[in-house]
Amino acid sequence: MRKFALATAGVAMGLASVAWAATPASDADRAFVAKVSQGGAYEVEAGKVAAMRGQSPVVQNFGMLETHDHEGVGAGLKRIAGETGVPIAGTLNAEFSARLAKLKAVPAAQFDAYYIGDMKQIHNKDEGLFLQESTEGSAPYKAWAHETAVLVKAHLGWLNTL
C-alpha cells in the first residue's frame, strides 16, 4: 500500500502546483463543483471511518489513502472555486450525511465489504463526472478534472483488486 500512497502523493502535489487563471465558471462548472465537492468531502470522512473501523489492514490503509488524496483534491477544488466565484458548502448535505451515518452503523463484521462496495460505487460515478468536465469544463476546471480523473482511476484500480 505504501507504493500506492507514494504514487498518489505525486499526483496530489502536481494538482497543488498548477497555477490557475481566473476564468468565470459556467453553470455546468457550478453543477460539477456542487456534486464533486460533496462526494469528495464524503470520501474524506468515510476514509477516516475506514481507517478506524476497518477490520483488515488493507481497508484501514485504503481509508487513510482516501483521506489523504481527497483532502488534496478538495484543497485544489476550493482554490479554483474561490478564484472563479463558486461557493462550496462547508458541511455534507443531507444525502451524504445519511450515507456517512449508515457507514458508521455497519456492523464490524460487514464493514470492510460495505466500505469497499461504497467506494467502488462512488468512484465509478466520479470517474464519469471528472472525464466529462475534463473535456467540457471551463479552462481551470478542465485541467483540474483531468488530473483528478487520473487519481480516481487509480483508486478504482486498487478497489477492483480488493
Folded structure, characterized:
The protein is mostly helical and 162 residues long. The chain contains six helices and no strands. The chain has one domain: Up-down Bundle (Ferritin). Helix content is 82%, strand content 0%. Helix 2 (27-53) packs antiparallel against helix 3 and helix 2 (27-53) runs parallel beside helix 4 (94-105). The longest helix has 29 residues, at 108-136.
Q: How many structural domains can be distinguished in the coordinates?
A: 1
**H/E series:** HHHHHH
Rounded average pLDDT: 88
Question: Helical segment tally?
Answer: 6
Oligomer: single chain
Low-confidence stretches: 12-21
CATH topology: Ferritin
Residues in helix, %: over 70%
Shape: globular
List the helices and strands and how they pair.
Elements: H1 2-17, H2 27-53, H3 57-84, H4 94-105, H5 108-136, H6 139-159
Question: Outline of this structure?
Answer:
The protein is an all-alpha fold.
Provide the descriptors you would attach to this structure in a database record.
162 residues, 0% strand, mainly alpha, globular, Ferritin, 82% helix
